[in-house]
């Protein structure tokens, strides 16, 4: 069994602390994605409210403030990596753990590849751009 990942780099012309808050706080993620009681603390267990897909149980497995957040949910892992570039932020998302031999994983991979690129990450960026610097 080999697994596949979705990896996306997104330059965001905002300070790293603002991007960090948008992906690591309940108010931050609710502003562009879903409601959830997230906290960037290793071992923290939280839920994300995925609407029609229900509540998803997650656990933080790595957290380095302003640099990296990794959490596991269902069969997958989300890794958020932030790097400062000339006062802006390069955000790298890796959504990993897709076994493409599994039809459910293949469906999720196809949907999330499009969803992250065309909807969710652009919404994150536009939410940050709408806030005053």
From TrEMBL:
CDD domains: SRPBCC_CalC_Aha1-like
Cited Pfam families: AHSA1
Name this polypeptide is given: Activator of Hsp90 ATPase-like protein
Activator of Hsp90 ATPase homologue 1/2-like C-terminal domain ranges (all copies): 14-128
Family that this chain belongs to: Belongs to the AHA1 family.
Natural source organism: Hoeflea marina
Superkingdom of the source species: Bacteria
Matches recorded under InterPro entries: ASHA1/2-like_C, START-like_dom_sf
Gene3D superfamilies: 3.30.530.20
